[in-house]
Write a structure and sequence with these properties.
The chain is of the alpha/beta class and 558 residues long. The chain has 3 domains: 6-129 and 253-430, Rossmann fold, CATH 3.40.50; 131-249, Domain 2, N(10)-formyltetrahydrofolate synthetase (2-Layer Sandwich), CATH 3.30.1510; 446-527, Formyltetrahydrofolate synthetase, domain 3 (Roll). Helices cover 35% and strands 19% of the residues. The chain contains 19 helices and 26 strands. Strands 1, 2, 3, 4, 5, 6, 14, 15, 16, 17, 18 and 19 form a 12-stranded mixed β-sheet that branches. It has a 3-stranded antiparallel β-sheet with strand order 7-12-13, covered by helices on one side. The protein has a 3-stranded mixed β-sheet with strand order 21-24-23. The longest helix is centred in the N-terminal third of the chain and has 21 residues, at 131-151. The two termini are 19 Å apart.
Length: 558
């Protein structure tokens, strides 16, 4: 029997009107701003009214270090949300919105897969409710206002060499990484070097996902550092009066988006910050609203636990006052075999020894998560090529460090495939084991925060900084930014800064190449290598095969 594609499965879904889905978690129809029959935004009035409700339990889904073999973190987040509902719990998932760039590039969308999907899948992966377009517009409005200010006399004294605000586009387009703007004569302004990032890398995206309400959003937008004067004094977005108009463009985008799973369970999909130079989590507003509506809320963080979970705990939970009750670490036998040295083309063959070797990566993540005081459990996302012996090795490795592992078949079986995991997650969440604490205190000096993450989470021997980076540490500390958390920008493919070092390397040095201030998002980005903020398309992009068929249906999206 042929295996159906994700889009074929999604197209066959029996969707309920979104108002009906909302009613299951206490959202009345008049609190929804409908975008067609199956997606809606939740009004601020309702969100404010729900603040007196008791908070549910927050469950984080994270993963082992990513590999080309795939892990299935979003699929597991959806599957676990469905599984919790299946065992009679009031639960929902909170996910990030997909970016158009990866959808038309190589990575694909982000609505889950198989029978653990969120629908309407095509809408979610394409334009959805227009949030990313609003963020793009707000970001580029600020860029236009900056250049306009310079054109009309530059009263604030922008140094053209130190403009810190690039432009953005929600598409993979390497040709725009570095450009020169304002060419064509005096009527077009003063030429300077510029460039584009992808929209998910915008600080506006990070701000939207950390803002508590519209007032907080405007405050944060106003605090964005957009450039410096010749004597290196920062110039803020509010200095050119950009914050008010940007907030207007984002007023609807800040409202969480409600959709449903294939099993008609509620899901918030809202925001999608880049998981390297930002914190890689869905919006605080969506997560906190969900906690007021459900007994259990399942959310995910970007990449593996060394990046995503660390930022979720040290940035999102710290800033939003969230207390996670349990953490699910997603692993696949395929990915663990890659960490054990098996080439991608050989993954279909049983290799128990390589699985055991690769489990060093899994146990490292489990040990790290306990440093935050949150109890972990392992979800083995099942593939048909997995053997009983390989699965047994993963379970044995998890048990060796005090965690249970569950074989999960949600991709093929939906909620039925996560029942056992769901029961254990409830037991963990209700056990009171979670004693959550961030990895470092606010008052720790910035340099020490970076070193703590590198040594405690990456298991590095030390960090290395040249004189300019050391000076920047001191400058930021003296400038009143020392209390901010650190957002590490590192390759997602290794605990080290070398993407080729699989497994669980130790003793390496983490070079800190640059420090960037995200004053509106309220964190410091520590860049450890070459971080690509505008991806390019592959030689044969997914866009080549995406089209409408004779029925007007989308083909090739998955």
């Amino acid at each position: 029997m042929a295996i159906k594609s994700d889009i074929e499965i999604a197209r066959e879904a029996s969707k309920k009107p979104i108002a009906e889905v909302g009613r299951t978690i206490g959202i009345p129809a008049d609190a929804l701003l409908n975008y067609g029959p199956y997606k809606a935004k939740v009004s601020f009035d309702f969100i404010n009214q729900a603040q007196n409700n008791r908070d549910g339990k927050l469950i984080l889904v994270t993963a082992i270090t990513p590999t080309p073999a795939g892990e299935g973190k979003t699929t597991t987040t959806v599957g676990l949300g469905d599984g919790l509902n299946r065992i009679g719990k009031r639960a929902m998932s909170c996910l990030r919105e997909p970016s158009l760039g990866p959808c038309f590039g190589v990575k694909g969308g982000a609505a889950g897969g198989g029978y653990a999907q969120v629908v309407p899948m095509e809408d979610i992966n394409l334009h959805f409710t227009g949030d990313f377009h609003a963020i793009t517009s707000a970001h580029n409005l600020l860029a236009a206002m900056l250049d306009n200010h310079v054109y009309w006399g530059n009263a604030l004294g922008f140094d053209a060499r130190r403009v810190a605000w690039r432009r953005v586009l929600d598409m993979n387009d390497r040709a725009l990484r570095s450009i020169v703007n304002s060419l064509g004569g005096t009527a077009n302004g003063f030429p300077r070097e510029d460039g584009f990032d992808i929209t998910v890398a915008s600080e506006v995206m990070a701000i939207l996902c950390l803002a508590m309400d519209l007032k907080d959003l405007e405050r944060r937008l106003g605090s964005i550092v957009i450039g410096y004067t010749r004597d290196r004094k920062p110039i803020l977005a509010r200095d050119i009066k950009g914050d008010g108009a940007m907030t207007v463009l984002l007023k609807d985008a800040l409202m969480p988006n409600l959709v449903q799973t294939l099993e008609n369970n509620p899901v918030f999909i809202h925001g999608g910050p880049f998981a390297n130079i930002a914190h890689g989590c869905n919006s605080v507003l969506a997560t906190k609203t969900a906690l007021k509506l459900c007994d259990y809320v399942v959310t995910e963080a970007g990449f593996g636990a060394d990046l995503g979970a660390e930022k979720f705990f040290d940035i999102k939970c710290r800033k939003a006052g969230l207390t996670p009750a349990a953490t699910v670490v997603v692993a696949t036998v395929r990915a663990l075999k890659m960490h054990g040295g098996v080439a991608k083309d050989d993954l279909k063959h049983e290799n128990v020894a390589a699985t055991a070797k690769g489990c060093e990566n899994l146990t490292r993540h489990l040990e790290n998560l306990r440093k935050f005081g949150v109890p972990p459990v392992v979800a083995i996302n099942n593939f048909i090529t997995d053997t009983d012996k390989e699965i047994g090795e993963v379970m044995k490795a998890a048990e060796a460090v005090g965690a249970k592992a569950f074989l999960c078949t949600h991709w093929a079986d939906g909620s039925k495939g996560t029942e056992a995991l769901a029961h254990h997650v409830v037991d963990l969440a209700e056990s009171g084991q979670s004693k959550f604490k961030p990895l470092y205190p606010d008052e720790m000096p910035l340099r020490d925060k970076v070193k703590t993450i590198a040594t405690e989470i990456y298991r590095a021997a030390d960090i290395a900084c040249d004189a300019s980076v050391e000076a920047r540490f001191k400058e930021l500390q003296a400038g009143g930014y020392g209390h901010l958390p650190i957002c590490m920008a590192k390759t997602q493919y290794s605990f080290s800064t070398d993407a080729n070092k699989k497994g669980a390397p130790t003793g390496h040095i983490v070079p800190i190449r640059e420090l960037r201030l995200s004053a509106g998002a309220e964190f410091i980005v520590a860049i450890t290598g070459e971080i690509m903020t505008m991806p390019g398309l592959p030689k044969a992009p997914a866009a080549n095969t995406i089209r409408l068929n004779d029925k007007g249906q989308i083909e090739g999206l998955f």
